[in-house]
């Protein structure tokens, strides 16, 4: 829901980030208003993930400032208001963990220390599992799932905290069409309830009709910020250059055998 | 030794103390070990154990209780290891190795200065059944309970931080504080385990029961609880074996505890392989072939791919690929491209 007069939920000014001594983001301004659905686009390495990580406090700024809900990022304590889906994160660690356990860790923002999970917590976790279509796999080990299924676990983890502001970094990479449609449905519901969504994507696919505004990055700068673009404007050429096909991460569920171990592609 | 004699031995005061210490150690070490394995730091316990040798030696040299000097030095070592790890320098593991060897060499040297020689240190390196005094049992019990309470009480937070530190940070958890807490708890359990398994084998009790229980468990919580059960059984069982053999030879309990834990791992490993295979076989078999075919003509396809042709659709750049016969397939004019 485009709401040009709404309050600013994210207010980034002159955001500059250097990694390994090289500037990766250079003087970016970005204001996201309450209820907006922003698609962050751009080529590989253009700085989309870094921008999202700067906005969530994972990357220190070399210059500039970020306000979330009007509070400077370093003083921002109401963490239950934000949900984060990292790019190609793996949900598996060195010890087996169940889908439900990983999703439940997204609920910690709303659980005080030492308080066991209550009814509301369990309901929120069940809802999140249902939205991503993993209800039947809640007790499966995460490491036995395909890459696309693991991606859906991470989406559910962000949903479990019932946040108002979502940062999703390529949440649909490796997710098959039926589940992209399911996710689009879930995001539409959230958006209609007033959630603010910042989503990184190369291909919007079924998410396209939801997008209010597109922000395109190039070489660490915001090169375009405005109404969603037509397909050709972003991609230019109909047939992608032969041989440059990037199927990473590989096709997800239910064609697990098609892909190699999806974890091999992760950084 | 006859069963009656063994029972008599187990009933003795010093043996009861040792059994209590072993049980608590066997519960606490795998509990914290589960988080360490989750973070893929299986050798952290080993490093702390080596550093703690210097702590014991300082205790022997100054005549203070080696338990407390070991706790202090182990905690300092653990914090240092965690700081080096967090800074993530490329040669971080070299720095860790230097710390390990320094700890061990320093400990042996200082023990020599204290005039105790190898024998004095031996009971701390490989454990001992008989040398535990009753005050030390209470220290051990107290420290083990602290480790267990904190670990189980903060399980959800520690799990979140160990499995995805970045997500945990965005969720507002103090990742660095929790990582330091795990390091400190690991140091405390190393000291707790020092009297039974000994410093050189302590890491085994943190890691092997976890490796065993993850053969069969599917969730983090059940891995942790089973690891505690297995650790408790191995520690108590290994101690009894050592006591039983002690009639014939001097056997330190450390090796027998660790060998028993390894035997449990060896016993469950085939079961784990079998269970995983069965689970995999239970999944529906995806009917997809392999190999990479070339482009084919449209007439090889009896239908136009579409929403409900039965072939899964996958968005790919600006078009949809359809998966069929094990490859992705994009309509392009008169033919199909393989993508
Ligand atoms: N940890 C790092 N250290 C140094 N440079 C980095 C680091 N992470 C990213 N970069 C650099 O920052 C630039 C932007 O990376 P970023 O991950 O933000 O790109 P992106 O737009 O998200 O790309 P993609 O589409 O591949 O996800 C890249 O040139 C990359 O090489
Ligand atoms: Mg990225
Ligand atoms: Zn078809
Ligand atoms: Zn084909
Ligand atoms: Zn073609
Ligand atoms: Zn294609």
Automatic annotation (TrEMBL), chain A:
Region Disordered, residue ranges: 228-267
Sequence intervals crossing the membrane: none
Keyword Glycoprotein: no
GO molecular function terms attached to this record: ATP binding
Keyword ATP-binding part of the UniProt annotation: yes
Span of domain ABC transporter: 10-244
CDD domains reported for this sequence: ABC_Metallic_Cations
InterPro entries in alphabetical order: AAA+_ATPase, ABC_transporter-like_ATP-bd, ABC_transporter-like_CS, Metal_Ion_Import_ABC, P-loop_NTPase
SUPFAM superfamilies linked to this entry: P-loop containing nucleoside triphosphate hydrolases
One Pfam family recorded for the sequence: ABC_tran
Keywords: ATP-binding, Nucleotide-binding, Transport
Domain of life of the organism encoding this protein: Bacteria
Family: Belongs to the ABC transporter superfamily.
Annotated protein name in UniProt: Metal ABC transporter ATP-binding protein
UniProtKB/TrEMBL annotation, chain B:
Gene3D superfamilies (UniProt xref): ABC transporter involved in vitamin B12 uptake, BtuC
UniProt cross-references to InterPro entries, sorted A to Z: ABC_BtuC-like (IPR037294), ABC_TroCD (IPR001626)
Protein's name in the database: Metal ABC transporter permease
Organism encoding this protein: Nocardioides furvisabuli
Bilayer topology term: Multi-pass membrane protein
Residue span of region Disordered: 285-339
Domain of life: Bacteria
UniProt xrefs under SUPFAM superfamilies: ABC transporter involved in vitamin B12 uptake, BtuC
Biased composition (Basic and acidic residues): 296-325
UniProt similarity note: Belongs to the ABC-3 integral membrane protein family.
Main location: membrane
Keywords from the UniProt entry: Membrane, Transmembrane, Transmembrane helix, Transport
CDD domains membership: TM_ABC_iron-siderophores_like (cd06550)
Subcellular location: Cell membrane; Membrane
Membrane-spanning segments: 14-36, 67-84, 96-125, 137-163, 175-193, 224-245, 257-275
């Amino acid at each position: 829901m485009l709401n040009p007069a709404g309050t600013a939920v994210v207010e980034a000014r002159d955001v500059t980030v250097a990694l390994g001594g090289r500037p990766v983001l250079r003087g970016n301004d970005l204001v996201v208003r309450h209820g907006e659905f922003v698609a962050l686009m751009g080529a590989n390495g253009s700085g989309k993930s870094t921008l999202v990580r700067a906005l969530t406090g994972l990357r220190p700024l070399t210059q500039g400032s970020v306000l979330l809900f009007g509070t400077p990022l370093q003083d921002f304590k109401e963490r239950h208001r934000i949900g984060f889906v990292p790019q190609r994160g793996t949900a598996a660690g060195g010890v087996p963990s169940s889908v439900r356990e990983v999703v439940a860790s997204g609920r910690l923002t709303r659980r005080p220390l030492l308080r066991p999970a209550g009814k509301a917590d369990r309901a929120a976790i069940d809802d999140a599992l249902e939205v991503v279509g993993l209800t039947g796999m809640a007790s499966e080990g995460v490491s036995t799932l395909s890459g696309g299924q693991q991606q859906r676990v991470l989406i559910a983890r962000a949903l479990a905290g019932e946040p108002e502001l979502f940062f999703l970094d390529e949440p649909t990479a490796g997710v098959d069409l039926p589940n992209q449609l399911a996710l689009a449905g879930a995001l539409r519901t959230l958006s209609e309830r007033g959630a603010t969504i910042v989503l990184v994507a190369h291909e919007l696919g079924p998410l396209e009709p939801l997008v209010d505004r597109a922000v395109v990055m190039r070489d660490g700068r915001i090169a375009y910020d405005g109404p969603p673009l037509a397909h050709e404007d972003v991609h230019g050429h109909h047939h992608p250059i032969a041989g440059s096909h990037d199927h990473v991460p590989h096709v997800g569920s239910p064609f697990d055998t098609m892909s190699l171990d999806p974890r091999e592609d992760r950084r | 030794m006859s069963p009656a004699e063994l029972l008599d031995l187990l009933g003795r005061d010093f043996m009861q103390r040792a059994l209590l210490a072993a049980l608590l150690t066997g519960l606490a070490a795998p509990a914290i070990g589960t988080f360490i394995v989750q973070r893929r730091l299986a050798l952290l316990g080993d490093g702390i154990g080596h550093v703690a040798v210097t702590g014991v030696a300082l205790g022997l040299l100054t005549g203070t209780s080696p338990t407390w000097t070991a706790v202090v030095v182990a905690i300092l070592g653990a914090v240092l290891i965690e700081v080096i790890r967090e800074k993530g320098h490329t040669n971080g593991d070299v720095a860790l190795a230097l710390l390990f060897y320094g700890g061990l060499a320093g400990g042996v040297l200082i023990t020599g200065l204290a005039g105790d020689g190898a024998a004095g240190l031996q009971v701390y390196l490989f454990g001992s059944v008989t040398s535990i005094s009753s005050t030390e049992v209470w220290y051990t019990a107290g420290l083990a309970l602290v480790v267990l309470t904190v670990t189980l009480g903060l399980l959800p937070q520690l799990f979140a931080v160990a499995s995805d530190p970045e997500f945990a940070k965005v969720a507002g958890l103090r990742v660095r504080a929790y990582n330091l807490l795990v390091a400190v708890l690991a140091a405390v359990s190393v000291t707790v385990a020092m009297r039974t398994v000994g410093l050189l084998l302590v890491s085994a009790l943190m890691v092997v029961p976890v490796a065993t229980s993850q053969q069969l468990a599917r969730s983090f919580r059940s891995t942790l609880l089973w690891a505690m059960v297995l650790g408790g059984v191995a520690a108590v069982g290994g101690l009894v074996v050592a006591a039983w053999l002690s009639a014939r030879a001097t056997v330190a309990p450390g090796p027998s505890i660790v060998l028993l834990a390894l035997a449990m791992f060896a016993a469950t490993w085939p079961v784990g392989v079998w269970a995983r295979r069965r689970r995999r076989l239970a999944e529906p078999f995806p009917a997809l072939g392999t190999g990479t075919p070339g482009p084919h003509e449209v007439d090889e396809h009896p239908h136009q791919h579409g929403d409900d042709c039965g072939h899964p659709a996958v968005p790919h750049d600006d078009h949809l690929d359809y998966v069929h016969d094990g490859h992705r397939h994009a309509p392009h004019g008169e033919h199909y491209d393989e993508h």
